[in-house]
Amino acid sequence: MPIDVKQFRQNLTYTAQASIKQVIADLQEIAEIDHLAELKQKEYGKKALNYFLGILIAVILIIVGSIFITNTQLLGVLKLLLILAIVGLVIAFIWALVKLSNFGEIDVMNYRYQSTQRILQMLARDMDANANITLQLSFNRTEKNEHITSTTPHPSKSGWQIDNYQHEWMKIEGQFLDKTRFDLSATSLSKKQYGRKRSSSGKNKYKSKIKSGGLDIHLNMVYPQRRYGAIKVLKDEIDGALKLPKLSNLRNLRLTDKSMQLAVRIAPNVADNQEEIYQTVTAMFLSLYQVLNLAKALSK
Question: I need a surface site. Which of 156, 210, 217, 269 has the fewest CB within 10 A?
C-alpha cells in the first residue's frame, strides 16, 4: 500500500504486517521519497541562497544610489522599486526555507532502509512467498529524550552529565519454510556528554559531544523440536559454528531446548554502514543454521 507521506513525516516510523514482497515494495517507496527529499533540499537550498544574494544586492544598490544619484525624484523611484523587490525576495526566501525544512523532515537515514531491504531479500529466499512478516522500522534519531536509558555524572569533568541512549530502530519477525520462527532486532547505542566550559574569553559556554556506542543486533530463533531435537547435544560445539565479521563482537550466545539466542555488537565506526549490518546479520543466520543443520543430521 502507498506510504502516507504526511503521517510518515510526523512519526518517521514504518510498521507493517504483510507479505514480504509488499514490505520490500514499501521500503523501495520510502527510498524514492528519501531520494526526492534530498533532491528538493538541494533545489530549495540553492533558491534560498539566490534569494538572499538578491536581497543583499538590492540593499547595496539602495546605498550606492543614495550616495551617487543626485536626482531626488529618480532616487525615490529607484528606492521604491528596490524596496518592493526586497519585500518580494524576503517572502520568496522565507518560502524557500520553509520548503527546505519540510523536505528535510523526510530526508531519512539511508542505511536503515537499505540494510533492512537487503536483509528482507535475503530472508525471502527461505520463506513462503505468501507468508506474512512483521516489521517495525524507525528513522528517528537515537539521541532523543525518549531514548535515554540513564544519566550519570561525568567521571572527570565537574558539573558535566552523560546521557546514555538506546534506540531499537529495526525489528523483524517471521517464519521460515522449516517452521523455525525468528525475531531480529537492531538497537543503536550512543552517549552524549554535556556541560558548561569556560572559554578563553572567560565566558561559560554550553558544550556537548555525542559518541556512538555501536549497534546491537539480537537474533532469537525458535526451532521445531521434532526436526532439530538433537541440538541439545551440540551445546559445547555451538561456539565453533560462529563466523562473524571482524568488526562485530559476540555479546551473548544462549542455547535452550526450544530456541537459540545470539547477540552481536557492531563497532561504532561502522554502526551506520549498511553493508556491515547486512553482512553481520547474514553471518548470524548462517551460523545458527549451521548448528540446526548438524542437529538435523544427528536427529536422523
Answer: 156
